[in-house]
Amino acid sequence: MRATRPVGEVTRGTTNPNRLRRMDRWIAAQHGASLRRSEDPLAVDLGYGAAPWTALELLVRLRTARPDAEVVGIEIDPARVAAARPYAREGLSFAHGGFEVPLPGGRRPALIRAANVLRQYDEERVAEVWTRLRARLAPDGLLVEGTCDEIGRRHVWVALGPEGPRTVTFATRLGSLQRPSDLAERLPKALIHRNVPGEPVHAFLTDFDRAWAAAAPFASLGARQRWIRTVRSLAGPGGWPVTDTPARWRQGEVTVRWEALAPARR
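Structure tokens predicted for Class I SAM-dependent methyltransferase (266 residues):
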């Protein structure tokens, strides 16, 4: 039989150690309970790039929640797979593939992480790719898809279950932040072209900047306290549907329900 061509396109492959630490820590904290319940604690690092650092780091961080977690790094470029295989170890392997997520034995992963993969695609492709990836998840699985800068200071991702998108998380190194809307350049492909007047994500970032400005007196207590005050204001009565708590806000994060930020229908 002829081999099936992997679905997708080769990415730039930019990889730096610790680039995805904010996303990984969020996954371990927020999805840890589900991972511990999983009969098959398998995670996929989809499109890990020119070097395998992100797959290695994902394994280490997931094992804080589930010591027997496994990670398979999947890359569409066979040369990158060959270069990564010397780094394989117990619980970590690498495979050639794309959005079809090829796994032996029909395994369905508890987690698929796709970071900085869809940025080069057209917005119209996002729904199709999300649908394909969600279909590969275990029943209680999670897909995390998003974008960050080269050293992981600013990151925005969407969390999706088998049923569809659930939340959007904004995460940043607070010491580098001038205003929350600085994160707009890292919006995932589903949202980045929607940061215009009339779209929910634009309204959210506008309110975020306004609340940040109002919280300026708290800057004397540090950027963390200003961020916490800002998010508390956003989540106040009649505000945005923030789903997390101050324990996550202290990490420079805020998570909002997808429905509140989803693109307006046209």
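The first strand starts at residue 42 and ends at 46.
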